[in-house]
Amino acid sequence: MTLALGCIADDYTGASDLANTLTKAGLRTVQTIGVPADDLALPEVDAVVVSLKSRSIPAEEAVARSREAAAWLTARGAGHLLFKVCSTFDSTDAGNIGPVTDALREDAGEAIALVTPAFPETARTVYLGHLFVGAVPLAESPLKDHPLNPMRDSNLVRVLARQSRAGVGLIDLATVAKGGDAVSARLDALARDGKGAAIADAVLDRDLAVLGAAALTRKISTGASGLGLGLARALVAAGRVAPAAADTDLGGPIGGRAACLAGSCSQATLGQIARAEAAMPVRRLDPARLLAGEDEAGAALAWAMERIGDGPVLMASSAGPEDVAAVQARYGRDAAGHAIEAAMARIAEGLVTHGVRRLVVAGGETSGAVVDRLGLPAFRVGPEIAAGVPVLRTTDRDMWLALKSGNFGGPDFFADALTLMP
Ligand SMILES: Nc1ncnc2c1ncn2[C@@H]1O[C@H](COP(=O)(O)OP(=O)(O)OP(=O)(O)O)[C@@H](O)[C@H]1O
Ligand SMILES: O=C(O)[C@@H](O)C(=O)CO
């Protein structure tokens, strides 16, 4: 297998978002969970997206795992590596976007890396280094209340500089508008100035095409699915990939039991859970009981088993910012997050043991915990449920999954997803 593009995603939902974007742009793509074992049979593809669960772990560990993934991808011929981060730049000042970008860039022998989380299809745009989520700056968006990494600064040059060893510069929209050569010249100038990364503005998909072409002249870049789109278009335009139609034959219907799990506390997910109440039974997990050591996961599973023969069910730990803050104040942010993720993973395992073969999970960390517990090695990419969320089919067994990034999907996401998972 010779890869045109190797991708390292810092969470599993983000990886499926990127795999979806690359597939739609004509790249044959597979999503693996972690660095694939040597004996894992993979189809012939143009791009591999290695999913890591590295967004919220200590920086040294994130660097080590990302390096391992980079080595695997490079050994399979990947000419360019994209480090896929969240389109809302989810990270803390001790976070990992800077350290991983620095490490991959240095290993690749590059002086500077282009960085942009812009993804206009989902209303993430960057102007003068400031990230906008829809019509508001990042720090005024619901991301300011994220349970793990509250985003309180919209200026990404500043955010990335706080996490990076090398300095961070800006490629502004006026430069992007002049085209790929102007972007490359600006990267060179910033590198001469000692910068190791440059936040690039992008407001429209055409800006991403320019950035993708410029990024492709170097060995690594960092960004969200929008930059993936730009890189895919540049690879096709350069004749390095012959565009393929999406993989329509994923193996036929599976049928059987279906369930949804939500651990995301994003505004979008909270609205989707409320809407799902009209379509299926919904059980809210009680984080306080769970964190007090009571068998809340077992109780939720028993609840599900009484109903699942009649149709899909949804179980959610999700809560609004005030409730999340109260739980975190009492039990600690990481301890609360990990305990709830572990409960979700246990419920997922129980569901699959009892015949669930169609599973929808909301939230990146939550999806990571669930997929790890189920031991799924890789996914092929099916139809798109909503921007950034495809249907996935496991490569080693008959199972449909959808891993939804917290902020993605329309109001009826859970029902929409199950409709596309026959
Ligand atoms: N009621 C709750 N109180 C405190 N923490 C919670 C609660 N419910 C879920 N959590 C934790 O909040 C975190 C949510 O992160 P997760 O990545 O799953 O969702 P997200 O950030 O919205 O999704 P994405 O990363 O895809 O945007 C998890 O660690 C989860 O365990
Ligand atoms: O880029 C995004 O917003 C998503 O793919 C994601 O990474 C959310 O976890």
TrEMBL record:
It comes from the Bacteria. The keyword ATP-binding applies. It catalyses: 3-dehydro-L-erythronate + ATP = 3-dehydro-4-O-phospho-L-erythronate + ADP + H(+); 3-dehydro-D-erythronate + ATP = 3-dehydro-4-O-phospho-D-erythronate + ADP + H(+). Its EC number is 2.7.1.217. GO terms for molecular function: ATP binding; kinase activity. The keyword Zinc-finger does not apply. Residues 260-414 form the Four-carbon acid sugar kinase nucleotide binding domain. Keywords: ATP-binding, Carbohydrate metabolism, Kinase, Nucleotide-binding, Transferase. Residues 5-229 form the Four-carbon acid sugar kinase N-terminal domain. It is an enzyme of class 2 (transferase). Belongs to the four-carbon acid sugar kinase family. Catalyzes the ATP-dependent phosphorylation of 3-oxo-tetronate to 3-oxo-tetronate 4-phosphate. This is 3-oxo-tetronate kinase. It comes from Methylobacterium aquaticum.
